[in-house]
């Protein structure tokens, strides 16, 4: 069975965010045809968008999977729903947010999914934990550190 390597961004700022992210990291390993191969520490960051919400807890996981990108997205959204994720406003507070950041070297452009994640190069809370688990990874041909150099890096390790 052919497998792919996907990088998943995790975030939460509601209902005990540290526990939400830690639990979700464990649950990723139980998804069908998936196995977590690495996970970053937890990080704290200010919210993107509306600032009238709590800070976020973030992490990144490397996931070996035999699922297609869209099938993986379906599994991730089902996991968000089990964590009672509600989509009330863009960039609003959430119990759990799971994003496919990268999927092998594949580019996906679909209404439901864009890979590489179109905003990840602008987000230190994604790039720092991603670089932690794969320091040699590049994005659009550039090392992750190069992308981080131009960002306001207000991301703090929690563990």
UniProtKB/TrEMBL annotation:
<keyword id="KW-0808">Transferase</keyword>
<feature type="domain" description="7,8-dihydro-6-hydroxymethylpterin-pyrophosphokinase">
    <location>
        <begin position="90"/>
        <end position="101"/>
    </location>
</feature>
<comment type="similarity">
    <text>Belongs to the HPPK family.</text>
</comment>
<dbReference type="InterPro" id="IPR035907">
    <property type="entry name" value="Hppk_sf"/>
</dbReference>
<keyword id="KW-0547">Nucleotide-binding</keyword>
<keyword id="KW-0289">Folate biosynthesis</keyword>
<comment type="pathway">
    <text>Cofactor biosynthesis; tetrahydrofolate biosynthesis; 2-amino-4-hydroxy-6-hydroxymethyl-7,8-dihydropteridine diphosphate from 7,8-dihydroneopterin triphosphate: step 4/4.</text>
</comment>
<dbReference type="GO" id="GO:0003848">
    <property type="term" value="F:2-amino-4-hydroxy-6-hydroxymethyldihydropteridine diphosphokinase activity"/>
</dbReference>
<keyword id="KW-0418">Kinase</keyword>
<dbReference type="Pfam" id="PF01288">
    <property type="entry name" value="HPPK"/>
</dbReference>
<keyword id="KW-0067">ATP-binding</keyword>
<comment type="function">
    <text>Catalyzes the transfer of pyrophosphate from adenosine triphosphate (ATP) to 6-hydroxymethyl-7,8-dihydropterin, an enzymatic step in folate biosynthesis pathway.</text>
</comment>
<dbReference type="InterPro" id="IPR000550">
    <property type="entry name" value="Hppk"/>
</dbReference>
<protein>
    <recommendedName>
        <fullName>2-amino-4-hydroxy-6-hydroxymethyldihydropteridine pyrophosphokinase</fullName>
        <ecNumber>2.7.6.3</ecNumber>
    </recommendedName>
</protein>
């Amino acid at each position: 069975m052919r497998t792919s390597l996907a990088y998943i961004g995790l975030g939460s700022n509601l209902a005990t965010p540290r526990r939400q992210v830690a639990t979700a990291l464990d649950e990723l390993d139980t998804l069908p045809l998936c196995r977590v191969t690495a996970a970053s520490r937890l990080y704290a960051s200010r919210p993107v968008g509306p600032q009238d919400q709590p800070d976020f807890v973030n992490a990144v996981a490397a996931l070996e999977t035999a699922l297609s990108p869209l099938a993986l997205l379906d599994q991730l959204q089902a996991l968000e729903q089990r964590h009672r994720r509600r989509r009330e406003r863009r960039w609003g507070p959430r119990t759990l947010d799971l994003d496919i950041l990268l999927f092998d070297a594949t580019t996906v452009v679909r209404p439901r999914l864009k890979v590489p994640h179109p905003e990840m190069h602008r987000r230190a809370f994604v790039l720092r934990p991603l670089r932690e688990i794969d320091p040699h990874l590049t994005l659009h041909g550039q090392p992750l550190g190069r992308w981080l150099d131009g960002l306001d890096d207000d991301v703090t390790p929690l563990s």
